[in-house]
Write a structure and sequence with these properties.
heterotetramer, A alpha+beta (365), B mainly alpha (348), C alpha+beta (189), D alpha/beta (864), C: alpha+beta, N-terminal domain of TfIIb, 3 domains, two-stranded antiparallel sheet, 7 helices, 32% helix, elongated, D: 864 residues, alpha/beta, Barwin-like endoglucanases, six-stranded mixed sheet, three-stranded parallel sheet, globular, metal-binding (chain A), 4Fe4S_Fe-S-bd (chain A)
């Protein structure tokens, strides 16, 4: 057992072609499966969140009752993050950029229509030349008296706030900025090197024959070690039952030949389920396609087997930096450093023992 | 654009503050006075929310477990060697503290579980990849031997067996004192993980200070020299290693510079320093020795609480994840000469 | 349970003796996990249905076990939806099994301050009486000019967009026979 | 579309993947905008300016699909000399009567067409006896009836049904009065600059759209337009759709694959409830309801409303078959097939009129079935006042919705306008079965009937509507059995003997669908509406559904997997009429019957087999060759030529110019919403001169361009909720996703009004004030309109006081003004003020709103 631990460094970090076999499953185990979430076609409908909860009987989220039905203010995301009761989480990012920096995926011009020609090149016959769509500067009306302006907050005496004539119209439209609304359905990454799994002291977390990482609720004793060990902040302990919970990649459905509930529901096929190698090929093709269309900000996340977790079983096509979606830019599984940690701890333990012995050095004084 | 640029995106900056639900805080929204630890460096994040999950480990259970484990670890050695060197009060103190520490630690450890009835599930497996599993297999025999030794000590029965089991516990003890550092560093919590070289030393020092401190409290002036030495050495190591760790952490060390962790660590340092000075100067007087011992133990305990709190704060701070990881990417790109920075970063 | 069996099921023993020394996979799988199956696998029946929310008309498969709906999900056969559902459609199981669903008749008497219970047949009988009465009170044989109206304005109906065609048909047919012209639904909203 | 119809949106994403350009034109930046190639923000209520601008672009640039236009449309028809356009009349068409506020459409007619009887919308002119009626009320009622004929919920029979003779045509399209030229002149002022000024979009954005749609229309390519109630909820709503119809017809995008104007409807069977209408003005299959003024007997009914040419020429067969289905043997040739059993209309009995009558205690009982008007309808107070003035109310639903509990916890209880103890309404709440607990058909948004099978039994007292209405009918018939009163004959003679099953005696739904389909004299199910006869030998409860039980098979229950069929998937469910998936698909082939292009081949003439064939079922007589020319005097479909693809029209043409059928003009014209912050920049006439109002204290309207109500608001749905919330607010999984009522405002508006993100805001109109959480978002953009800045506020309307997720109802903020054609309210745009903080509670709220009204110069509000 120690041999496997110390000898096979690849089973703690780095590329690992077959984590399933590494976890003791015989050679004829099923192919490793996973998710490819293509956020460029995500419409943020949250069907994945609901379908997941319906199938897995996950309770309404929220740490306490008063939290349940409150807006977070984070665009249309009222889930907040992944957690024990949110195994799918759709992030919404409202991104504002200077006008003109849009690309095709960002509400840019339809393919094949150069922006310049649109602005100036075409004019219907008989029309005066127009170079800019912006009409003349708006007429600003008399600004509101600052002294009568209400203070923010929960004012109840609104009668005092009856508007003065011309109270509006002082703010000018901001034509200079384009809006981009990114949506992405986050999920457990089912890492090749899964920190949660490796630190679990009970074997509740285990790697299935499909190469996925699953919590066995009948085993978990709620030690919580998996929670801070996940570099993505996925798994969490549910307060009411004390168990750690996360996406199972619908382990129970896989056995019955069904695809995971979220992937099945996803209206635009943003969430794709399948054999990991096939998904990776599909993702590479999709990335090339998008790059070919000028969507240069597209990038794959979790696709690379050389990354800090040995590649993810659930990986993504993103349109911005991972941290914008609430994901770490370059996670490394904590156990990569574990051999060194054990060495340090062992040496220090020896030192500590020596110190105790040394304290008795010289006999009685 | 960055989310930290409040001037440019006022409403989003406000979201950053309000929407976060950091663990360990009762209120849903942070007050103005309790700003996120947004570092100097600019970084982007998802509404300023934490990226990783902060530990759900209970406070004070886990810091106390760490403290008691450390206390027991060195106490077992003091007890065994105190017996071997004819220091009966040190022996007795060490043995009882080792057993009590192990027992108390076990209680806290079990209580910390969110499903405590399933404590024994820990014994299903032995996983070298899991410090908690390894720790369980350290704590269990240690507690058993320490308890047996203490029973022998208290009853006076089976003295030889008691000595033997005490010796075994003493041999295991140091592992119990340092494995907890791995327990913390083997997480994704940046402030813990990045201190994985220093944290065992800090915890070893802390264990020594605690065990030695206990010895000062319990042993007679006649018997307390090794305890005083160990305690003072422990305090010095803990102080030095702790300081070194905080500095070496750089950006990640900011959690020790503010908030509760800062307060706890300052108190810890004060206690350790006072205790060490007291132990050196006041060892010969029962009461001053005991007071010094208590101060050292308090210092040790406060370190555990401080490190624990620092970890929570670190986990809740997205900058702790994003900035170092970005820096790593930047450095790699600088060395490999490739620039894979997405084109939109420049104006985004 | 014999010691051997017990030992054989002890994951640590399996770690030591099997192909999973680190206790990451096969060695630590619990018997319950091993026996895990899909909730829909033992359904008595899979009934073809259509989503009740918007008008896209997504196909649904309704899984029934012991006379209860255990799961509703998209019907992959449907050329309309290809098995996919939106969040509302995906919540269909919750919709049909909602704990707050009202399943008994509730009655509020005129000027009453609280709901009361009422037997369904009694309710139907009372409603029939009220329909007859309102129909009579609102009846118009002719208008002022003597033109035939043969209608009642005594009562009206609202709803239909969430109902089946067959149900709308019966409503329209019955109301026409009663002479009640005031039939409306969401299509005008 | 991604917001409210996400699963349907998968096909848009498929199209995008294949290179289609997705353009989203919407006041808000929504989930649809997020994945569109182009989002064009613009001002709510300015759609006709936008569409008119596109029409102008097409016409002035000569970008129309000329061969399609000359083959299939009335572009070449010459408009009569009497017609005066808005260009020459300060924004009003000829025929307007300022006193009555309505149009006499006779001057809109085409040259060379004689009218022997009035078509819908023109009866006022053609019925001398009607013209003599001078009382205001009656005139108004008649007008409303006529307008209803043109309803988009109806729209079938009666539209200019009785034009005879052929209009003069100029195939070169050069005649100054030909439709093409009239259209061109009408839209000439809708320049890109004008569009930009009115709509608040840039000229570049507009041109980008114009270029995209014209480049993607023609032989090889098609463009589809998709809309929802964002187009219908306006005081000019029907004309919005007309605008799109004109544009799509000019571009040759009707009747072709990838083309069309696609209405996304919002309820599982809202299409079905229009086809088999629980609507006051229609009979099944878009046959109009008999009218007391016009229809003294069946013949006058047919004379007035059945066309002579086109497929509506067969309305006699549809109507007699319907009467036979309902009254069976009691319907005989002698008694005019029981035509006199039908009640008659005299005016508007639309839902808002009904509610007005409820408040006036003119009507006593109300069935509310699967609907939640207290939340879901415009002017919630008006709805609840109506409920409170009833004698009895029956609510059938699954959850305890606000409509059932208004007497207990409605907003008017809080304001002390009403006291529970004073409300005399007797309320029956009856639990209903859900979609898994009964069998039946829904008709989806593409006219597709899909049969659902019962999976489980309904719990407790829950019953299907089929059960309820069948047994209610039975009970009433029992109570009236033996009655000799003539008025009870229709009820007692009604065919009401459906077989039942189960312990609850549930009617067999197949038997009802069978009756809808219809039978021949021998009792065999019919297979096509062409089999219907006017001699009483056939029955059909809804002629357009005839064929759903073809061969005795429930065609709606066909479930051949899509993967085993071609892309038309004709063997899944059944689409009316005759299982055709694309209407008017004859237009997918040219005059000679050849596909316009290989790429866009859909239905074509097979010269060898001498019949129409293709991927879909041809929407044309199968063996009528393209070369067919009708003889003089031919009637019904025989009067249509081999190129008359629009077979329901009397002339077989798509109408670019509508000489009849609409109550507010032959061509769409931009009018401002009734509540608009700006003046009409295109025409002197501010708003639709023919729109309908309800001038009551509980329905006060904000003055146009009011400084007191300076902001535009619009209501809409979120993906996570369903309409008035009865099916979503009570579910945890949905409620947690959108947990609170909120308003969306731009950062600029937030700064202007000191609104704090996530704080509270109070929104005020002349109706009431409501409170909402504030979401400040860059997705809302202030617009420049002329020299003004217009701020728009977004309000999802799902919330009420019951359920898990609660909030003020957005619809309470709305008043009711209506489109004159279809009586649909203008709820997609109105004005309000917004202030930070929560609204006043209790009676203080009324004072607060009244103070606003005073300031705005609005008459006092109240409950009467």
């Amino acid at each position: 057992m120690w041999d496997a631990f110390s000898g096979a460094a690849s089973s703690l970090s780095g590329p690992l072609p077959d984590p399933t076999t590494d976890a003791g499953w015989s050679g004829d185990h099923p192919k490793r499966v996973g998710f490819f979430t293509d956020t460029s076609v995500c419409i943020g409908c949250k069907a994945c969140e609901v379908a997941c909860k319906e199938w897995n009987l996950v309770p309404d989220d929220g740490t306490d009752a008063s939290d349940l039905y409150r807006l977070t203010g984070m665009s249309y995301d009222n889930t907040g993050d992944l957690g024990a009761s949110s195994w799918r989480h759709v992030a919404f990012i409202e991104d504002v950029r200077p006008h003109g920096s849009a690309t095709a995926a960002h509400g840019g011009p339809p393919s094949g229509v150069p922006v310049d020609s649109l602005a100036t090149g075409f004019l219907p016959s008989g029309l005066p030349a127009v170079t800019d769509g912006a009409p003349s500067t708006p007429t600003l009306r008399a600004p509101r008296d600052a002294a009568t302006a209400p203070a923010p907050g929960e004012t109840v005496d609104l009668l005092a706030l009856l508007p003065d004539t011309g109270a509006h119209g002082q703010q000018t439209p901001d034509d200079e900025r384009d809006v981009r609304w990114l949506m992405s359905s986050d999920v457990c990454k089912h890492c090749t090197h899964a920190g949660c799994l490796d630190v679990c002291p009970t074997g509740a977390l285990f790697r299935t024959e499909y190469g996925t990482v699953v919590v066995q609720d009948d085993i978990c004793n709620g030690c919580g070690y998996c929670v801070p060990s996940c570099p993505y902040g996925v798994i969490d302990v549910r307060e009411d039952d004390g168990g750690a919970h996360k996406c199972t990649l619908c382990y129970d459905r896989l056995g019955a030949g069904m695809e995971p509930a979220c992937a099945k529901a996803c209206p635009t096929n943003s969430i794709q389920f399948g054999d990991l190698d096939e998904l990776q090929a599909a993702a590479d093709a999709r990335l090339a396609e998008l790059h070919g269309r000028g969507v240069t900000e597209a990038r794959l996340y979790g696709r690379d087997p050389d990354d800090g977790v040995g590649g993810d079983g659930a990986f993504f096509l993103l349109l911005d930096e991972p941290e914008v979606y609430g994901m770490p830019p370059e996670p490394i599984v904590t156990t990569r450093d574990l051999p060194e940690m054990w060495r340090n701890a062992a040496l220090t333990a020896v030192g500590l023992g020596a110190a105790v012995v040394a304290a008795f050095w010289g006999g009685r004084k | 654009m960055t989310d930290a640029n409040a001037a440019e995106m006022p409403e989003r900056a406000r979201i950053d503050r309000d929407a976060v639900k950091p663990r360990g805080q009762k209120s849903r929204r942070r007050g103005r006075g309790d700003e996120l630890q947004v570092p100097e460096a600019e970084f982007r994040s998802y509404y300023g929310r934490p990226i990783i999950k902060a530990p759900v480990w209970k406070n004070p259970d886990v810091p106390l477990y760490l403290f008691l484990g450390g206390l027991a670890a060195t106490s077992s050695g003091l007890g065994a060697l105190g017996g071997a060197t004819d220091r009966p009060t040190l022996r007795r103190t060490g043995r009882l503290a080792a057993a009590a520490g192990a027992a108390g630690g076990t209680v806290f450890l079990v209580h910390d579980l969110h499903r405590p009835k399933r404590f024994l599930h820990m014994l299903r497996v032995f996983k070298p990849t899991s410090p908690l599993s390894v720790g369980t297999w350290i704590l269990s025999p240690f507690a058993t031997f320490a308890a047996a030794t203490a029973a022998s000590e208290l009853t006076g029965l089976f003295r030889r067996a008691g000595d033997a089991s005490g010796a075994v516990a003493a041999v295991i003890g140091p592992a119990l004192g340092t494995y907890t550092a791995v327990l913390f560093s083997n997480t994704a919590v940046p402030t813990w993980h990045e201190a994985h070289r220093e944290l065992p030393i800090v915890f070893a020092g802390s264990a020594a200070a605690a065990g030695g401190g206990m010895g000062l409290v319990g042993a007679s002036v006649r018997d307390n020299v090794p305890a005083a030495r160990l305690a003072v050495a422990g305090a010095v190591v803990e102080l030095a290693a702790g300081e070194f760790m905080e500095r070496k952490l750089g950006l990640l060390g900011d959690v020790y510079q503010k908030g509760r962790a800062h307060t706890l660590m300052r108190a810890s340092k004060a206690c350790l320093a006072a205790g060490a000075v007291g132990a050196v100067l006041g060892r010969r007087h029962r009461w001053s020795a005991a007071l010094s011992g208590l101060a050292l133990m308090a210092g040790s305990a406060l370190t555990r609480f401080g490190v624990f709190d620092a970890g929570i704060a670190s986990a809740n701070d997205p900058a702790h994840i994003v900035v170092p990881q970005r820096e790593r990417i930047r450095q790699r790109q600088a060395t490999t000469g490739t620039d894979v920075a997405p084109p939109d970063r420049t104006f985004a | 349970m014999g010691v051997r069996t017990w030992l054989g099921e002890w994951p640590m023993f399996r770690q030591a003796t099997g192909s999973d020394p680190l206790g990451r996979g096969s060695a630590v799988q619990s018997p319950r996990t091993q026996a895990l199956g899909s909730r829909t696998a033992d359904a008595d029946e899979v009934v073809k249905s259509v989503c009740p929310y918007c008008a896209v008309g997504c196909g649904q498969n309704v899984y029934v076990r012991d006379g209860r709906v255990t799961q509703i999900e998209g019907d992959p056969d449907s050329p309309v939806s290809r098995g996919r559902l939106c969040p509302k459609g995906s919540a269909s199981t919750s919709l049909v099994t909602s704990p707050s669903r009202v399943t008994t008749v509730r009655y509020r008497r005129p000027y009453g301050t609280e709901w009361e219970d009422l037997d369904l047949d009694t309710a139907l009988d009372m409603i029939a009486d009220r329909v007859i009465d309102a129909r009579r009170k609102g009846w118009q044989d002719t208008d002022d000019e003597g033109r035939v109206l043969r209608r009642t304005l005594g009562f009206s109906s609202l709803g239909g967009a969430t109902l089946d065609n067959e149900e709308n048909y019966l409503i329209k047919k019955l109301f026409m026979a009663l002479g009640a012209i005031q039939v409306e639904n969401q299509a005008r909203i | 579309m991604a917001e409210a119809h996400p699963v349907g949106f998968q096909w848009v994403m498929e199209a995008k993947k294949r290179g289609a350009t997705i353009i989203h034109v919407d006041p808000r930046f929504t989930r649809t905008s997020a994945v569109a190639d182009l989002h064009v923000p613009f001002r709510a209520g300015a759609d006709i300016a936008f569409l008119g601008g596109l029409i102008n672009y097409v016409l002035s640039e000569g970008k129309d699909f000329r061969e399609y236009v000359t083959t299939f449309t009335n572009a070449a028809d010459i408009v009569g000399e009497d017609f005066v356009d808005t260009e020459d009349m300060a924004g009003i068409f000829s025929g307007y009567n300022a006193e009555t506020g309505r149009y006499d459409p006779i001057s809109w007619q085409l040259e060379g067409v004689d009218y022997e009887a009035p078509a819908a919308g023109m009866r006022d002119h053609w019925e001398p006896s009607l013209r003599e009626q001078s009382e205001e009320r009656e005139r108004s009622e008649k007008r409303e009836h006529h307008a209803a004929m043109a309803s988009d919920t109806g729209g079938g029979a009666g539209d200019a049904a009785n034009a005879t003779g052929s209009p003069k045509r100029d195939e070169t399209l050069q005649h100054p009065r030909c439709v093409y030229q009239v259209l061109k002149r009408h839209y000439s002022r809708y320049t890109p600059e004008a569009v930009s000024q009115v709509c608040g979009m840039s000229v570049a954005e507009f041109l980008r759209v114009a270029q995209a749609i014209t480049e993607n229309s023609g032989r090889e390519r098609t463009t589809a337009w998709v809309y929802s109630v964002g187009w219908t909820h306006h005081s000019v709503g029907a004309q919005y759709i007309r605008g799109a119809a004109i544009l799509q017809t000019l571009l040759g995008n009707i009747g072709r694959p990838g083309g069309g104007i696609l209405a996304l409807r919002g309820h599982a069977s809202i299409q079905g409830s229009t086809d088999i209408p629980t609507l006051y003005d229609l009979l099944p299959g878009y046959i109009p309801m008999p009218n007391a003024y016009l229809h003294t007997d069946l013949q006058s009914f047919l004379d007035a409303d059945a066309a002579k040419t086109g497929f509506w020429g067969n309305m006699d067969t549809y109507m007699v078959s319907l009467l036979k289905a309902w009254w069976g043997d009691a319907a005989t040739a002698e008694n005019d097939w029981a035509f006199d059993y039908m009640p008659r209309l005299t005016g508007d009995h639309g839902t808002y009129g009904i509610v007005r009558d409820q408040i006036d205690k003119l009507t006593y009982g109300y069935f509310v079935v699967g609907e939640n008007p207290a939340i879901g309808h415009a002017n919630g107070k008006m709805q609840r006042l109506g409920l409170a003035n009833l004698e009895w109310l029956v609510v059938r639903d699954m959850q305890m919705i606000e409509t059932a509990t208004f007497w207990k916890d409605g907003p008017e209880i809080e304001t002390e306008e009403m006291r529970t103890e004073d409300i005399g309404t007797e309320v029956f709440f009856l639990p209903c079965a859900n979609h898994t607990e009964k069998s039946g058909t829904f008709t989806n948004t593409q006219r597709l009937l899909q049969w659902r099978r019962e999976a489980v039994h309904a719990p407790g007292d829950a019953r299907s509507e089929l059960h309820f209405y069948f047994h209610l009918g039975k009970k009433i018939r029992e109570k009236l059995a033996g009655s000799t009163d003539e008025r009870d004959r229709p009820l007692l003679d009604l065919t009401w003997d459906y077989p039942t099953f189960g312990i609850h005696e549930e009617p067999v739904p197949e038997s009802v669908l069978g009756e809808i389909n219809g039978y021949d004299a021998d009792g065999n199910p019919l297979s096509s509406y062409t089999q219907l006869r006017a001699d009483g030998s056939t029955t059909a409860g809804c002629w357009i559904y005839t064929g759903v039980f073809a061969d005795g098979v429930n065609q709606a229950d066909r479930r051949k997997p899509g993967s085993e069929q071609d892309w038309v998937a004709a063997e899944w469910g059944w689409a009316w009429p005759a299982n055709r998936r694309t209407l008017y698909n004859r237009a997918s082939a040219d005059a000679q019957g050849r596909p316009w292009s290989e790429r866009k081949a859909y239905v074509w003439w097979d010269a060898e087999q001498e019949k129409w064939t293709g991927h879909d079922i041809p929407d044309f007589e199968a063996t009528k060759p393209p070369s067919y020319v009708p003889e003089d005097g031919a009637t019904r479909q025989d009067a249509l030529s081999g190129t008359d693809a629009f077979i329901m029209q009397t002339d077989g043409k798509a109408w670019l110019y509508a000489p009849a059928g609409l109550a507010d003009g032959p061509m769409p014209t931009h009018y401002e919403p009734v509540e608009s912050p700006v003046a009409n920049l295109l025409h002197e006439q501010q708003d639709n001169p023919a729109l309908e109002r309800i001038d009551r204290a509980w329905n006060r309207i904000n003055p146009s361009q009011s400084e007191v109500y300076p902001y535009v608001f619009l209501t809409y749905r979120l993906t996570e909720h369903h309409t008035a919330g009865g099916m979503s607010r009570f579910l945890g999984y949905l409620s947690e996703l959108q947990p609170e009522f909120f308003c969306e405002v731009s950062p600029a508006l937030a700064a202007e009004r000191n609104l704090e993100h996530l704080g509270w805001a109070t929104l005020i109109s002349a109706r009431t004030a409501i409170e909402a959480r504030v979401l400040v978002t860059e997705r809302m953009k202030p617009l420049r309109i002329g020299d003004q800045v217009v701020h728009q506020i977004g309000l999802p309307y799902h919330w009420g006081s019951n359920g898990l997720s609660t909030g003020d109802p957005a619809n309470d903020l709305l008043g009711v003004v209506m489109d004159p054609n279809v009586h649909i309210q203008e709820s997609k745009v109105a004005t309000c003020d917004i202030q930070p903080g929560r609204r006043p509670r209790g009676p203080a709220l009324l004072e607060f709103v009244e103070a606003y009204r005073r300031k705005a110069g609005v008459e006092p509000g109240g409950n009467t």
